[in-house]
Every structure is written in structure tokens, then in C-alpha cells.
Amino acid sequence: MSVILEANDLVKRYPLGGREVEALRGVSLSVSRGEFVAIMGASGSGKSTMLHLLGGLDLPTSGEVVIDGVSLTTLDEEQRTLTRRAKTGFVFQYFNLVPLLSVSENVALPFLIAGDTVAAHRDRVDQLLELVALGGKGHNSPDQLSAGEQQRVALARALATEPAILLADEPTGNLDYTTGAEILDLLWDSCDRLGQTIVLVTHDARAAAYADRVLVVRDGRILDEIRLGRRADHAAAPLIHRLAELGL
What we know:
By secondary structure, the protein is of the alpha/beta class. It has helices spanning 47-54, 77-87, 103-107, 109-113, 122-131, 147-159, 177-192, 205-208, 237-245, and strands at residues 3-16, 19-32, 36-40, 62-67, 70-71, 88-91, 165-169, 198-202, 213-218, 221-227.
């Protein structure tokens, strides 16, 4: 499979209280098209910083990120925004839906930002709502949906433009166990059936077990890589065992 995402020697430093904190310390990785990769680590390990750099939400202090052949670190801010809009989809812990827009309008938001109308993409929006089991709820407002349903809307929105890569930052962190499992099943299904490339950040071994491989991050570095393969049972036990060996 071809490489769709590549990071080379990423370093990220932040000023903090008159000194510099190094959040990432020379991280390199590659993700193949259609692969499901989890980035796992404790709070403060650098995993969310890594995801923000991979998606072009922030720039590294040094190093390079390449998405689908485009080097984000060579672009100016406007070019990076347009590239991010075209090539990435994001799912966050707190949904980030627009409360004044309907469900359909929230799903179509990437098109609205580009100056299109919901009507121009009606078939795509309806298809995505069916994919996330929300068919018939397009006219609802977000506050009429449960937390799990709102995260389904966020996932549909992230997939709207058929992005090269979908980046998910703790997408089940605000959900109960059962609802979280449903969202993970949807992510896995979009990867398995649709060939969507996914990078998932999580601290939860149960969520990470859905991935083809897991990158374990500690102190701003990739400590280990655990290959799970394309799994149907998502059993976390082997992963938990390996994490215990690493002292995590």
C-alpha cells in the first residue's frame, strides 16, 4: 500500500513560564492508505500535539509533515488551511457541532465553508447520515440528539469531503462504554469497508485495539509499535499485556 501520511523528525517546543518545554522530540512515522493507526499514551505524553501537527492544525518547531504528497510545512497559512480542508477530516472529543445549524447543515459544513449549498450536496449528506444510522434526522437540531448521535454527526461531517485521512482525537472520551463502542465500530467499518485511512489518538486500550497497529508515545517520543493486524474482534487483551510489559 502507498504511504499517504508521513512525518519526519518532528520536534515541537512551547514556551512555558520563561523556559521551553519539548512536547515532541524527533518523531517520525508513516501511515499507508487505508490503514487504521492508533497513537496511545498517557496525558502529557505528546500524542495530541502529534495529531495536531499531522493534521496541519499547528506547525512543528522543526521537521516535516507530508499528506497525500503535499508537504504542509512548506505552505503558507492560507495554503495550509485549504489543504487541510481538502485532505483531512477531524473528529474531536467534544463534537464541535454548530448549534444553530441542522444536522444536515452540520454534515455539509465543509461544503458551506467552501461557498456551496446543502442542496448541491444533498445526496452525499443523505448517504453519510444513512452510514452513521441517522437517516431521517437531517432536519433535527444538535440539541435534539443524544451525545452518541452528536458524535455520529461529527463523524459524518469529517467524512463529507472524502478526505485522504481522518484524524480522531479521543472521539469516545465523552461517551459511555456502549455508545463509545458504537462510534469505534463506525470508525473501523469506514476503514474496513470504505478504505478510509484513520489515525486515532486515545489513552484507552479498548479503543486502540480497533487499529491495525498502535504507536505508544511517552515523553514526546514513540516508545514502541504494536502490530495488531486487521481485527474483527477488537480484543484488547494482547495490547494490554504488551503495555504492561512496557510499564504502562
